[in-house]
Amino acid sequence: MTMPLQTPVSFVDVLIIGAGPAGLMCGNALAVAGGIEVKIIDQRPSKISVGHADGLQPRTIEVLQSYGLAERLLYEGNHMYMCAYYNPSRSGGIEFTTRVPDVSIPTARYPFKIALHQGAIEDAFLDSMAQHNLKVDRPVKPVAIELSRDQEELRSLSSYPIKVTLAHLNAATDADKLEVVYAKYVVGADGAHSWVRKAFGITMDGDQTNYVWGVVDMVPDTNFPDIRNKAAIHSMNGSLMIIPRESEKVRLYVQLSEKDIVDATTGRISKSKSSPESILEVARKTLHPFHISPLSDIEWWTIYMIGQRVASKFSVEDRVFIAGDACHTHSPKAGQGMNASMNDTHNLAWKIAQVLKGWANSSILRTYESERRKYAQDLIDFDKRFAALFSGKPRTSADQDGISHEEFFKAYRTAGGFTSGMNIHYSPSVIVNAKHQSCAETLVVGQRMLPQVFVRAADARPVEIQDLLPADTRFKILIFLGSMDEESRLVGINALADQLSSPTGFLRKYSTDGQASSSMFDLITIVAGRKENFNYLSVPLVFRSHWSKVLLDDTDVAGNKGGDGYKRFGISSESVTLVIVRPDGYIGMVAPADALGDVHEYFASFLLPCHRS
After folding, report:
1. I want to staple 536 with a disulfide (CB 3.0 to 4.6 A). Which of 241, 350, 379, 550 is the partner?
2. Which of 335, 55, 18, 313 is nearest to 193 (CA)?
3. 59 an active-site residue?
4. pTM of the shown model
């Protein structure tokens, strides 16, 4: 490639290629972290405005809340509380079978899913990024990438070992077209046909199924009674899923016949062989005896063949990472695609930020692949079962080999913890240590911090603990002090305060300013006490960096919210327990106060001591 003599050259900490959900989550997280030079590009001339992904799972809503973005999407999106099931009737059409909560996990803070088109979700990220002076460069695509092979350069945090040549697709002249960017890290969030993945020869392992589906977004005219509920429909004509959307719209996922859509010469689906009208015609047959038609023009449609694949690796030399559809593809009907993609980079961004800031050893970057690739493999295994069940023929009196409603229903409910994101469980690693799990039995190390309402000791205001765990790159240290009513316990609590205040204690050893609550740690203290008589000033100073940081395990003044948090978490009120929550909201470790040495070792295994002048 011939470079113009005056090709612009720039240096960035992180170059993000692709501005879909995964790329925007990453860009926003790094922008919010502050002090990081980020560049994000996308080859599309503008953001998407209709179609594509359309659902947010309960865990993803929690994650978005940690960035301050959930309220907007909760307002704009449609909330799906119930799922209706329909199966073949003896008269030849379909009939109602049952209706159940769509989210059945008792720990769900948001016991519903949000249906909202991908463009609106991307807008929330774009607006947040703009507040931090980050915007997407469009239309720009990468045309060459080189990663240094010098091991010393790869190890050095001051080096820029990745050279990427970019092409500005709307450049007025050839001289303005090319740009060279040197980056410390590159995140390839550039979709299922990822240029980054292919540039490094990373393979996608898995299979292409023969399941073909059509998708139509429209405002419907119908007498189907569950059109505003999620609906899973099995008929002798095929299967159909209905997703009620924002602004009166619905999305139909319609099972199609392979022979009508697939090009015999290429083996690929051909959109020219289909149309929204032909998809709707199949939907009408599947919905019989109910009718459905669009009230106005169809907003968006597509067809797809289900592929179930996982990338052979998610990173190269801990410098180049791939995320989202670039490293896993699967069917959309379980509502995982956009959710999995955003959670990939939610997992990755804080690790990159801590390494760039000199807080953490670069070894933590390896946990991105170990945590998210295992999740992706589990997702594909689930998707294979779910897609086969949903696409299979239903059992009838004439066909006992088909899939029964009970079989489908059981599989869907069993997988609820996984599909909702609630039960994602990261395995033991340098940042996941379950040695003392027994001291907080239901706060599972490697899983998300559970929601729970406590009341602030200073003003009795109820607060949701998750709202005190923003995704701001800090570790949150939740200190469950237990009861402070007995004098005998105060001696031990004060001794712990002295230990944590010590310059050699982890709070100050890894703090940039030498303070206990700092840019690295945020301490929140939770006491087993009553709002009527507890004095928050009785808590040692190290445990109350601010008056709002002392909470009580008590109900609000109306008696409607909060209470029994210790009991729910399996924590004793007769001892002190530390719960370490990672910057992404997952529990890294729990430990009793008498195992403080193990907590020191946990942080020492990946954090770097700060050298203050």
Report:
1. 550
2. 18
3. no
4. 0.94
